Amino acid sequence: MWKLKFSHLFGGYGYYVFLASIFTMLFGMMCSVGSSSAFDMFFGMIIGIIAPGIVVYLFQNFMPDVLEKRNSAPAPDWRDLEPYEYEELLAQQVKKSPAMKYFIYAQIPLIIITCFIAASNGPMAFLIMEGIALTVCLSHYIITALTAGKWENVDATAKVAEIPIDDTYTVTIRYKHGVEYKPYYIYYLNSGRYVADPDQLYSGSTVKIVRWGGSVIYLRGGK
Q: What gap in Å lies between CA 135 and CA 139, rounded to an integer?
């Protein structure tokens, strides 16, 4: 079940976490610019990149009310799929990972980094960070592609659990040319707090999660 947390690791606020990471990364670099050690600059940069994500994740998952709901939430009640649920599962397609989009986004902080440290060890630092970004994107793409191929062979041994939505909220994303409002849905299990988007919702008040062969997936059949 923990794999489902990665679909919305920051509860829909990933756009803002990304922007905050750029600013805190630059701040970390500026704080370490007086050091002669390339490691100090690299360390300050890495801390700046991950700090906003850690703060948002801890705030969303470890507040007292969240822990209270998590501790009182039941484990998933797995059952056999009904015939119509099995047909819905066969009909839906697992979305491939938009890896290139993530990879392009990753270039923004890397280009900024290169501008700051190109005079010394910039080329090597750029290659290292580029390698990390490429590895993450390719790994995500490969895992998603393998998962999609696996679910094409699902059989009647799959199990499903129906879980009620506990709360909903809307994330406002402001772009240069407009505003986008994205709804998100919260549900709780004994393993933690989970967030789903409209594509992952089965109906207006529930999500259905299918488990098969060590993997889990949202059933998206019945809006």
A: 6
Cβ-contact 69, 188 below 8 angstroms: yes
DSSP state of 4: G
Q: What pLDDT is stored for residue 18 in this prediction?
A: 84
The contacts of residue 156 (CB under 8 Å, 6+ apart) are 80, 81, 86
CA distance 204 to 223: 7
Distance CA 85, CA 78 (A): 14
The winner for highest mean pLDDT among 1-5, 72-76, 122-126 is 72-76
Instruction: Return the structure tokens found at 201.
Output: 């919702």
Find out whether 151 and 75 touch, Cβ atoms under 8 Å.
no
Q: Which residues pair with 173 in a beta bridge?
A: 180
Residues with Cβ within 8 Å of residue 153, at least 6 apart in sequence = none
CA 164 – CA 132 distance, rounded (Å)? 38
Residue 186 is inside which H or E element, if any?
strand 178-189
Helix (H, G, I), strand (E, B) or coil at 88: helix
| Residue at token pair 């970390």 | 28
Inform me whether the pLDDT recorded for 136 exceeds 80. Answer: no
pLDDT of residue 97: 47
**Residues 92, 34: Cα–Cα separation, whole Å:** 55
For helices 14-31 and 38-61, what crossing angle results, to 10°?
150
Token pair 């009182």 is found at 72
